[in-house]
Specification:
By secondary structure, the chain is mainly beta. It contains no helices and 17 strands. The radius of gyration is 16 Å and the shape is globular.
C-alpha cells in the first residue's frame, strides 16, 4: 500500500498497487504538509504539529504548537522516522528536532555545533541505519550535509553554488 497526500484539504488516502483508492488514512489530518512512513510508524506534519500513527492508522501521539521552545515549530518542512525516533526539519527556527517514540523531546540540532557550521538553512532530511543525519541545505541548491550520531559534520555532498539541481526531498 502507498499513502498519498491529496490536494485541497482532502487529507491522505491509501492507494493499492494499481493506483486505486483503498480508503483514508488519519482522517482527522486534513492539510498534511509532509509525511514519512517508517518501519514501525507513520509521521505526518500539519501546520505546526507532528502526528504519529501506527501503520494501521491508530494515533500514537500528537505534539506541537507555534514557537521556538522544544516541541514548538515555525514552518516545519520535513519529517523522518527511524529507529523509534521522529526527526522534524523546522525551517522557521532553522533546526532539526528529535522526539522519542512517545513524542517526548530528545534533542535539538541547530545550524552550529560549537564553532562548526553544520548547515546554513535546514531543508529536507533523512537518517540512515547508523543514525547519520542527512540535511539538504535550503540555502544551497544542491548541497547535502551528513552529520554523525554525535552531530559532527562528516561530509558534504554536492555543489554549494550554481547548482542546477535542488534537493527537494529524500525517498
Amino acid at each position: 500500500q502507498t499513502l498519498c497526500v491529496r490536494p485541497d484539504d482532502k487529507g491522505t488516502v491509501i492507494l493499492a498497487a494499481d493506483g486505486s483508492e483503498q480508503g483514508s488514512f488519519a482522517e482527522a489530518i486534513k492539510r498534511p504538509s509532509a509525511i514519512h512512513v517508517g518501519a514501525q510508524s507513520v509521521a505526518i506534519l500539519e501546520k505546526n504539529n507532528l502526528h504519529a500513527f501506527s501503520h494501521d492508522g491508530k494515533k500514537l501521539f500528537s505534539i506541537g504548537r507555534y514557537g521556538s521552545s522544544p516541541g514548538g515549530f515555525n514552518k516545519p518542512v520535513d519529517v523522518f522516522v527511524h529507529a523509534g525516533k521522529y526527526y522534524v526539519s523546522d525551517k522557521g527556527n532553522n533546526r532539526v528536532q528529535v522526539f522519542a517514540a512517545d513524542g517526548i523531546f530528545l534533542e535539538e540540532i541547530k545550524e552550529r555545533n560549537g564553532d562548526e557550521r553544520l548547515f546554513i538553512e535546514v531543508g529536507p532530511i533523512a537518517v540512515d541505519s547508523k543514525e547519520n543525519l542527512y540535511v539538504a541545505d535550503g540555502s544551497a541548491l544542491g548541497l547535502i550535509h551528513v552529520l554523525d550520531k554525535e552531530r559532527n559534520k562528516i561530509a558534504s555532498i554536492g555543489i554549494a553554488e550554481d547548482s542546477l539541481h535542488k534537493v527537494t526531498g529524500f525517498h
